[in-house]
Amino acid sequence: MTDSTSFQEELFQEVKNKADSEGVYKNDAFFDLITDYLCDAGEFDEAIPAFCQRTGIRVDGYCGDPFESSRKVLGLIVLDFNQDTGLLTLTNSEMEADFRRLEKFVTKALDSQFRESLEPTDPGFGLADLIHARWNEIERVNLYLLSNKKLSQRVSGKETGSVLGKEVVYNVWDLERIGNLIESGRERERLLIDFNELPTGPIRALLASSPKDKNKVYLAAIPGVDLARIYDRWGARLLEQNVRVFLQARSNVNKGIKRTLENEPELFFSFNNGITATAESVTTESGEDGLLIDRLENLQIVNGGQTTASVYAAYKAGKSLDRVFVQMKLSVVSPEEALELVPRISEYANSQNKVSSADFFANHPYHVRIEEFSQRIFAPMRADSFTQTKWFYERARGSYRDKQAYLTPAQKRKFVAEFPKTQTFTKTDLAKYLMVWTNKAYLVNRGAQKNFSEFARLIKDSWDKDESQFNETYFKYLIAKKIIFDRAGKIVQARDWWETGSYRSQHVVLAVGVLSNAVSALGKAVNFLGIWNQQSLSPAFERALGQASDAAHDVLMHPATGYRNISEWAKQQKCWEAIKLKKVDWDKEWLGELIDLDEEKDIQREGSRNQKTLNGIEAQTAVCEMGSGFWQNVLNWCLAEGEGTEKERGILQYACALPNKVPSESQSVVLINMMKRLHRAGCPYRVKSSQYRL
């Protein structure tokens, strides 16, 4: 990692920039920034702010409803954030004090007198009430300390403890560990599994790949009790990120799996499709019964998450797993190959609950196109600036920082001037900005990963129907929606009813949703191109956002009967439906800024036409770059395998005559689309040009 002082300064500046751009306190910005990284790493699924401080008590947030987790784990978060730019040490006594504050909050949450002392609208009340309601079902408590201080070298760790009979696991994310996470893009530590330490010892396996194959593949039968113990130890970190999303969307245990585990455990191996997994390294030995797997490094279950969770559920319910074995297909994949191969293995693997292609959306060409737009399109100059800038899309988390890693100081200043930190956004940010305009604003409040999963499905379907709709105009609309969303945060905090910590993110999401719903109900459209051109909102638009905030506030802070936790209430469709019924006397000047749907459709059609033209030019360039020999090989393969339509084969023959004959733009598009299909059909030839990677 880079030296601690330098990284601390970088991190502090990033926190400051986020706080300034969003109009929040540095503590809140630090919470959002670090928990986003930890969610991506699989440390937990979501992080919800819930600040509460009393004498000897402090909590800053929690990791969602433990009832929604198959492991019934309560996760609580506390911050120890240094407001100064200097590097400080997190001592053992400070660490212990921070964890004691969290533990005391847990015990106080079960005290009715303490809960009644809190205001019902206080985030601390909602969290305390949740802990009280779920306490009997909670199996473990995970406590997280997040700090921009550097943990003292004298602190080697903290043993597992207990609170009111529940096991407590302590997690410290100090400056150094955060730096390692951001720099490497990996989890906090290597995921090592030693089967010698598990109940049944090393597992029998067969080497299914040939010695000539680049990647080794093993077939094995892993005992159910071992799989359950592994999942108990590593949890969501064991599951490839797309599978985590999949499980969040489908939390109910498969009834067929459950029935087999309970009634016919000896047949589980025969009835269940098992799991597909990858590991970066595998240690084996020769035993009396053949090959044995001793150790796995960085195991990832890329398909079969439902099976894993079901076996674990049976284990925690006290069911015997002595006769349960789970078949496992294990591929050894190097760290360099993992980024490309793991999602592909995930997508193509079969399981009893097939993960749809949308679950692997992180590698979809949609993202590539958005990234390309962000690198190329200059934003118009703001009225208060003399500099043109761009909006940086972090297709891969941490890429903004990576782009600057090897720049000289002068080059870095130029980069930051062109791509200001305040003009960066991630995949989950993008999904949030867009989903609030789909009449499903409540989904955004269910957490970044769940919202992204739904967003992926919508976009994939739309892309398959007509990818030309995702064009430069679409990108400009996206940025306009980001401008609206970001500005809504500051407007919410300026309202008379606002109190620090009063569910800012929920208010913002629902306020923008109210505005979107109103525009739709009026049969109008927002002039997003106008916002893009100005890179800001008009005073009338900001007044309308204030009105939308008031409408959302009235419903959000008065939950329906049966809902006491406002964060949970904000996730419900019932909350959203109640908000949509609110009557608002909209600002007349803002209403005058809206445009007719016919004008909006004309703008969209023009954007699609331009994108189709661009697609044709890019496709033709790619076809020519590959040359006649490549297309002759493709044609020969199609003839041998019976692939390709008559039209496609005719265009292929034309391409075989390059450079004497050049396929037209439309013909080239046909060839590129054909190659996408042939790739899935097993064609060994790939288009590898400057335009495409198929």
Notable characteristics:
4 domains; 51% helix; single chain; 694 residues; 15% strand
List the helices and strands and how they pair.
Elements: H1 4-22, H2 26-40, E1 48-54, E2 57-62, E3 73-80, E4 89-90, H3 92-109, H4 112-117, H5 123-134, E5 140-147, E6 150-151, E7 161-163, E8 166-173, H6 175-184, E9 192-194, E10 203-207, E11 217-223, H7 224-234, H8 241-249, H9 255-263, H10 268-271, E12 275-279, E13 281-287, E14 290-297, E15 300-303, H11 305-316, E16 325-332, H12 335-348, H13 365-376, E17 392-394, H14 399-403, H15 409-418, E18 424-426, H16 427-435, H17 441-444, H18 448-465, H19 472-493, H20 504-521, E19 524-525, H21 528-534, H22 539-556, H23 566-569, H24 573-580, H25 588-593, E20 595-596, H26 597-641, H27 646-655, H28 665-680
Parallel strand pairs: 3-5, 4-6, 5-8, 12-16, 17-18
Antiparallel strand pairs: 1-2, 2-3, 7-8, 9-14, 10-11, 10-14, 11-16, 12-15, 13-14, 19-20
Structure overview:
The chain is an alpha/beta fold and 694 residues long. The chain has 4 domains: 4-184, no CATH class; 192-355, no CATH class; 365-593, no CATH class; 605-680, no CATH class. The protein contains 28 helices and 20 strands. The strands form 5 sheets. Strands 9, 10, 11, 12, 13, 14, 15 and 16 form an 8-stranded mixed β-sheet that branches. It has a 6-stranded mixed β-sheet with strand order 1-2-3-5-8-7, with helices on both faces. The chain has a two-stranded parallel ribbon with strand order 4-6. α19 packs across α20 (504-521). The longest helix is centred in the C-terminal third of the chain and has 45 residues, at 597-641. It is globular. The two termini are 35 Å apart. The model is unreliable at 244-253 and 350-360 (pLDDT under 50).
